[in-house]
Amino acid sequence: MNALARAPITTHILDTERGKPAVGVSVELSQLHQGSWTVVNQGQTNSDGRVEQWQQPLTLATGMYQLVFATDAYFKQLGVASFYPEVNIRFYVAKPQEHYHVPLLLSAHGYSTYRGT
Q1: HSE-CB for 88 with a 13 A CA cutoff
Q2: Stretch (H or E) spanning 103
Q3: pTM of whole model > 0.85?
Q4: Domain range for residue 16?
Q5: Total domain count for the chain?
Q6: Is 12 annotated as a binding residue?
Q7: Residue 15 sits in a domain of what CATH number?
Q8: Which of 100, 115, 103 is nearest to 63 (CA)?
Q9: What pLDDT, on the 0 to 100 scale, is given for residue 5?
Q10: Between the CA of residue 27 and those of 46, 50, 67, 91, 97, what are the distances in Å?
Q11: How far, in Å, CA of 25 to CA of 103, rounded?
Q12: Where does substrate bind (predicted)?
């Protein structure tokens, strides 16, 4: 894979309390296989709060995927008490040839998500 090519699944975290990207958050990507979640990749948000490349090349297949964001460690390093120790976002990949961008809008006591572009 071209090092500059965008991964088929990307994410972005905006810390809505601070109005800044959430930097250094560990993210796991899993896929559902026969009723069990299997970690297929890992990443960490960059200085813009994005995971645009994973540790390993990623090829998609149709199926259920899950992003797990390690939010507890992020808020602890900021000295902020958080209600959610992690955020799990599950989504369905219907067309593996498409790009899937899954943003996370995050605060210490809430979060929301949507399918981005």
Answers
A1: 8
A2: strand 100-107
A3: yes
A4: 9-113
A5: 1
A6: yes
A7: 2.60.40.180
A8: 100
A9: 78
A10: 11, 10, 7, 15, 22
A11: 13
A12: 12, 50, 114
Contact residues for 68 (Cβ-Cβ < 8 A; gap 6+): 27, 28, 30, 86, 87, 88
* DSSP symbols for 19-31: TEE-TT-EEEEEE
Q: Is 114 annotated as a binding residue?
A: yes
- Asked if 104 contacts 69 with a C-beta cutoff of 8 angstroms, the reply is yes
For the chain, the first-to-last Cα distance in angstroms comes to 21
- Asked if residues 50 and 95 have their Cβ atoms less than 8 Å apart, the reply is no
Q: What letter represents residue 34's amino acid?
A: Q
How does pLDDT run along the chain (117 residues), one tens digit per residue? 445 578 999 999 999 999 999 999 999 999 999 999 999 999 999 999 999 999 999 999 999 999 999 999 999 999 999 999 999 999 999 999 999 999 999 999 999 999 998
Return the pLDDT at 4: 59
